[in-house]
Amino acid sequence: MMMARKQDVRIPTYNISVVGLSGTEKEKGQCGIGKSCLCNRFVRPSADEFHLDHTSVLSTSDFGGRVVNNDHFLYWGEVSRSLEDCVECKMHIVEQTEFIDDQTFQPHRSTALQPYIKRAAATKLASAEKLMYFCTDQLGLEQDFEQKQMPDGKLLVDGFLLGIDVSRGMNRNFDDQLKFVSNLYNQLAKTKKPIVVVLTKCDEGVERYIRDAHTFALSKKNLQVVETSARSNVNVDLAFSTLVQLIDKSRGKTKIIPYFEALKQQSQQIATAKDKYEWLVSRIVKNHNENWLSVSRKMQASPEYQDYVYLEGTQKAKKLFLQHIHRLKHEHIERRRKLYLAALPLAFEALIPNLDEIDHLSCIKAKKLLETKSEFLKWFVVLEETPWDATNHIDNMENERIPFDLMDTVPAEQLYEAHLEKLRNERKRVEMRRAFKENLETSPFITPGKPWEEARSFIMNEDFYQWLEESVYMDIYGKHQKQIIDKAKEEFQELLLEYSELFYELELDAKPSKEKMGVIQDVLGEEQRFKALQKLQAERDALILKHIHFVYHPTKETCPSCPACVDAKIEHLISSRFIRPSDRNQKNSLSDPNIDRINLVILGKDGLARELANEIRALCTNDDKYVIDGKMYELSLRPIEGNVRLPVNSFQTPTFQPHGCLCLYNSKESLSYVVESIEKSRESTLGRRDNHLVHLPLTLILVNKRGDTSGETLHSLIQQGQQIASKLQCVFLDPASAGAAWWLTPVIPALLEAKAGGSLEVRSETSLANVVKPCTKKVQKLAGRGGRHL
């Protein structure tokens, strides 16, 4: 039952007639009052279906066509709406007008020969087969448009919208229009049908006209007034819904919104739709080469596109798309321009780096000069069409060369001027550096070792600060200081050599007392070469100590001129020109895995170390090979007789890592030297990663003079040696008559074992005696030498 009742409910239908000033140009002016636009916007609200131009001047054929149908009214069609009370209704819209003959410019003759005011107030309209009107273009081309007839060819009007144009119409007097409207209202009132006054073209409204129109409405039984703009689509629906509410009292009363408030709401709606549409375009369109046809197809299903096109139309949507494309293209061109402008200084540096060549050239002349350079085409491309940013070159991403017509632009000219200025500044900075160096060289205030803070006030001026940073001057000053310090040191070395007699009476260990150092400084103090190092006293004292060490140990390593020592240079020259047989054998031995290498330190005072080293080398082959029991060893010896804390007497060097040490002594003094040297060497490596010197295998050996094999002195030295060996946890070997280097036979295998990770263990005296027996005659011969021997 409920379902049947719902099916019987019919949608209410209302027939509305839109009326207002009409007639010839003399009566209504050069344009109408906006009745057609009001109907158009209500019936077909989409922006693409809205037309501003609706002419009332027609040919006889158009007037007799099925759309006009020889009538002075238009049927706009049927509209379905859900109004404010959410109840759907249908409306048939009719516009009462007056069509003018394009030949006579007088109203066309029709079946109803009545003046407009009487005809417009008609409530019964009839026109058989009359077609729905769309736009002026439809007239004469009815077959190209939808053909929908007025239902049953007749309509009964339920209410009227009375239009008043409040804009400043051309050739129209508003007071005359208001008089016409007043007469028209009087005729409409006789029908007893609801009437709503509609103010049209409020987007161009004149305040006085609007005020007068409201006054008129108040004087006519308080007519309701709706301010509209069909062009802006403001309050159009409100006008029709207000009339429907008056026709059907059962509907809720419509709230009338003032024009500017409604315009604000409409503008916000359009702005929101525009923002969403622009976001959609920016998300879809990333390339400036996209076209509207393909992009619009992609967007058709998107609500953002549909909403904006509905409100503003396809043309505005296309316009925003083209603006986005233009923006993308502009950004693309600007990116390319920035790349070209960034490369332009590099091109200038490569092609015109010489200031003398371009110092007085303008940018135009420099452009001609660039074309003559051999690498011109490496940096530039000459285009047939210009400017470059209006050609297809903007999309030629593979060609990174600079369009040559870019040189005609202001930024390029500015970059050229900047290039000139840079070259001039660089030249000026070079001149300032040179002037600063000359100032340093000629200034009497700049002495070796003087800090920059003290020297700055004497040598700096405003020009220096203007052209260079202080860090640059500090760098130049530092280099200058190094030069004058090196020169002062060289001159001081010459001074020390000139006063060699001062160093003759020093102790053998090259440790001058404070008194002696004072004497040396007093003697040299008046010399200018001594005073030159006044601010470098520590280095001056170090040079004195180094010189003293050289006096007592004159080697190329201790030479003050090292590495410019003549001995070292001659040795390097000979080694670079000639290859010794031992070098060839050494190369071969490097590839022989059967040869063990032993690095051996020989520690002894008063020539003991050097004499033993020479005797060992005498037992070796020409390439420093030593044979024991048929096994070949490669020996590298480092005799040490001085202070082990000096680098020249260090146990290890970057190229020499010792595997063991032979410690020689023949007196209490030499034994004390051995103990002190071992302790100093161990102390120097404490806390370091490479502290293997602490565990370096040691062998303590007593050396005595020939024939002195017994006696209280020898016995005392043996006892002391044994005590020291126990303290140092090393092997002690008694003196014997076997020869100079016979200890090597038991020591070398023990060193190899310790090198592999074991501890040093040398065989006992009994076993040593057994080893000595098969020694070679050469060893026995060495044992019988005069002087010191083992």
TrEMBL record:
User: Which intervals hold domain PG1 pseudoGTPase?
Assistant: 592-768
The record's annotation in SUPFAM superfamilies points to: FF domain, P-loop containing nucleoside triphosphate hydrolases
Q: Which Pfam families match?
A: FF_RHG35_4th (PF23083), Ras (PF00071), RhoGAP-FF1 (PF16512), RhoGAP_pG1_pG2 (PF19518)
Q: Name one GO biological process term.
A: regulation of cell size
Alphabetically sorted, this entry's keywords are: Cell projection, Coiled coil, Cytoplasm, GTPase activation, Nucleotide-binding, Repeat
Note the coiled coil stretches, chain numbering. 413-440
GO CC, one annotated term? endomembrane system
Chief location of this protein?
other
The places in or outside the cell where this protein is found are: Cell projection; Cytoplasm; Endomembrane system
What are the GO MF terms of this UniProt record?
Answer: GTP binding; GTPase activator activity; GTPase activity
Q: Which Gene3D superfamilies does the annotation name? A: FF domain, P-loop containing nucleotide triphosphate hydrolases
Q: Which residues form the FF domain?
A: 270-327, 429-483, 485-550
Q: What is this protein called?
A: Rho GTPase activating protein 35
